[in-house]
Design brief:
Blueprint lengths: L5 E6 L5 E7 L10 H16 L3 E7 L4 E3 L4 H4 L4 H6 L9 H4 L4 E5 L2 E3 L1 H8 L2 E5 L3 E3 L13 H9 L1 H10 L2 E3 H7 L4 E3 L4 H13 L3 H16 L2 H15 L3 H11 L10
Parallel strand pairs: 2-3, 3-5, 4-6, 5-7, 6-8, 7-10
Antiparallel strand pairs: 1-2, 8-9
The chain binds hexanoyl-coenzyme A (HXC).
Hexanoyl-coenzyme A binds next to helix 2 and strand 6.
């Protein structure tokens, strides 16, 4: 499948491989327009549905992961049109419904909608030149793809207010300190690190991977008692899988497990 605004490829040698999606509007610093968001939804859905894919890596270019929604498009919207076409909801949220892990590999600017996309991913690995921010306030706007909700959950209210109300950027080191990103690596090692993490996930039991992701996401959607209850029931359910028998046996027999993803 070929896209106008994305490059996709499958990487890896194992039974389950990594689907890589690269945002590709470099002249506009990967500004996110309707075509790109439509295509991203299609690409994510295709990898998620493919049994040969164990993990997805979402990345951009060296200078920008994405510098936000395309401001030239936003400039033309009025309320009635945005509301009637359900701007954002219509095609920005496919990432929320992807069940396999999505690793964001971020170099350069991840601003506005770009930062919001990053926050919809499961693991964020940043190059040391990455810069994050929600500068919508400088355009007389507010974040529209979950930024005011996911940022405080990721970095706490104090830092989120600072970023959203001033529109300033934070660098990779601050983002890691604050809990927005999981790892910071030298820019030239970004893809190696992200693909290494993805390959490790591809080797695990696909059933267990899905369950782990779903349980962690529950922590953001529910209270502690309900979340722990959900985890407990999922934990019990894992005892029905062949992969749990294989994983525990392999450990006891001091050998590498061979998961069958069931
Ligand atoms: C459209 C953009 C763009 C954007 C950059 N460009 N960001 N076009 N929408 N978000 C274009 C520039 O117009 C320019 O085009 C080219 O990309 C290179 O950008 P420069 O500004 O020349 O680069 P630089 O000086 O290095 O500055 C980089 C930057 C700056 C700091 C990232 O471009 C910037 O501030 N961009 C806007 C960031 C922003 O406000 N994002 C939030 C958008 S609102 P030309 O043709 O001149 O070469 C948003 C709402 C989300 O995301 C809500 C959900 C949808």
């Amino acid at each position: 499948m070929s896209y106008e605004t994305l490059l996709t490829e499958v990487i890896g040698a194992g039974e389950r491989r990594t689907g890589v999606i690269r945002l590709n509007r470099p002249k506009q610093l990967n500004a996110l327009n309707d075509t790109l968001m439509d295509e991203l939804g299609v690409a994510l859905k295709a990898f998620d549905a493919d049994d040969a894919i164990g993990c997805i890596v979402l990345t951009g270019g060296d200078k920008a992961f994405a510098a936000g929604a395309d401001i030239s498009v936003l400039a033309r919207f009025d309320f009635a049109r945005a509301y009637q076409m359900d701007l954002i909801t219509r095609n920005w949220e496919q990432l929320r419904y992807v069940r396999k892990p999505v690793i964001a590999a971020v170099a350069g600017f991840a601003l506005g909608g770009g930062c919001e996309l990053v926050m919809m991913c499961d693991i964020v690995i940043a190059a040391d030149n990455a810069r994050f921010g929600q500068p919508e306030i400088k355009l007389g706007l507010i974040p529209g793809a979950g930024g005011t909700q996911r940022l405080p959950r990721a970095v706490g209210k104090a830092k989120a207010m600072d970023l959203v109300l001033t529109g300033r950027m934070m660098d990779a080191a601050e983002a890691e300190r604050s809990g927005l990103v999981a790892r910071v690596v030298p820019a030239d090692k970004l893809m190696e690190e992200a693909l290494g993490a993805a390959a490790a996930i591809c080797d695990l039991s696909a059933v267990s991977v899905l369950a782990n992701k779903e349980c962690v996401n529950r922590a953001f959607e529910t209270g502690l008692s309900d979340g722990v209850h959900f985890e407990r029931r999922m934990f019990h359910a894992m005892f029905s899988t062949e992969d749990k028998n294989e994983g525990t046996s392999a450990f006891l027999e001091k050998r590498k497990p061979v998961f069958k993803h069931r």
